[in-house]
DNA sequence: CCATCTTTGTGCACGCGTTCACAAAGACAT
DNA sequence: ATGTCTTTGTGAACGCGTGCACAAAGATGG
């Protein structure tokens, strides 16, 4: 998953494990699809397959919410949709601001998945005066001078940062000072926030790098010594003379 | 997390734990910043702070790669940059295709974090004939009819899916059939792929929902601090949702 | 009302990841 | 050389998450 979390005091958010919370949206999506097809009930096996998880895991996840199933039958789709929505807090309206209306910010503003789940884009904010007033996704962009006022007027508690890395921390500080307590960060930076503020991070580059690692592993071990071409001029250490240019320091793995 | 298929065989990817692999890009970014400031060495404590993790965790992570530190001094920045880059496979060039050039796909194409880390956008692919030939981020969009040929001609093994949900699985199947073995999925769908293919998922909506959960919990603690408020989720089957400060709202359903 | 069948809910064991705490290793000063 | 000081590398304990396997619960049919 694409996420990182800043220090959480392991409060185990009300008895529901973090891992379970992270899967609830997945279940909710699968259940919504079933609901649209007017499927009345679903077994843990079927729902687990639709959500891409293990059925035992799904049952255990639901057990944290309560006993909402009927043995021998399964789960009532509509009822479960409601319970999970309520548990996630999606039965209320969450005004959200997006700061940084570049390519990514515009994409986020246009992303349908937000509005369809109780999230409402309350404002788009950018530091570029030339952007001010220009509508993106039907919403006029506002200048970041008014950030605090926008937050307060709309009662925003969730902010999305889609600025360049350098601007992320200052923007974050201002958001927090204005009252935002949850931040979704797309900028490739570690944000530092006071206690009580949640930060989740989505980093496109990191995801690709993790894929590259596995891809390299799949490609085989001989690839490491074979291709020498694209190395980005990172000089190897001068001291250790016994190690060749591409000679590997013995990795931890035996074989 | 790596959301491959149902239960992958717990691949301890070459002795390096998944959790460690997921943090390596984080360390690499912090180290790169230090390198640009010409900092020669760094202690585990300093680097851990910069990466936003625990120093013991960082040292253990590095221990999986080998012993690259010097006791009493710390780690050589340049050397560590090289080692991590090599471990992640970033010393080679990875051609990547992006399928689905909507708002998000265009944002990804323009995203600088790709090119700066050994990833090269080899092609942009879209199903809309009107898009064909139109340049995005300086790269002409190609029609999806040519997907297989593009993959093969460029030796692409990593694909990024930024299509609508409905198109994701068919696109995924074609990518895999053409030889792609790693997929970064932005579409809100569970992709099913054969063994040996890695899928990582980035879901903007899910991240926001997780934030909403914590946000709701924080709001509930404030409102009901001291009362029975901490009642575990085993509330009765009635709709006694008393957590939110505002009243109960019927479940929001996507249109 | 009883038997059978289906599916949930969960106790339990196991493995991974995190954290602590400290010995070992090297730098540095004398 | 020797002692001191700093920092790494890691053994060990612990906690969380996962998956198995099964008993309990309810539906269903006779």
What does the model show?
2 copies of one chain form a homodimer. The model of chain A is unreliable at 1-13 and 221-255 (pLDDT under 50). Chain A is built from 10 helices and 10 strands. Chain A has 2 domains: 12-88, Orthogonal Bundle (Arc Repressor Mutant, subunit A), CATH 1.10.10; 94-205, 3-Layer(aba) Sandwich (Rossmann fold). In chain A, helix 7 (147-154) crosses helix 8. Chain A has 255 residues and is of the alpha/beta class. At the A-B interface, helix 1, helix 2, helix 4, helix 5 and strand 9 of A face helix 1, helix 3, helix 4, helix 5 and strand 9 of B. The structure holds a DNA duplex (30 and 30 nucleotides). Chains A, B: This is Redox-sensing transcriptional repressor Rex. Chains A, B: Residues 222-236 have a biased composition (Low complexity). Chains A, B: Modulates transcription in response to changes in cellular NADH/NAD(+) redox state. Chains A, B: Residues 26-65 bind DNA.
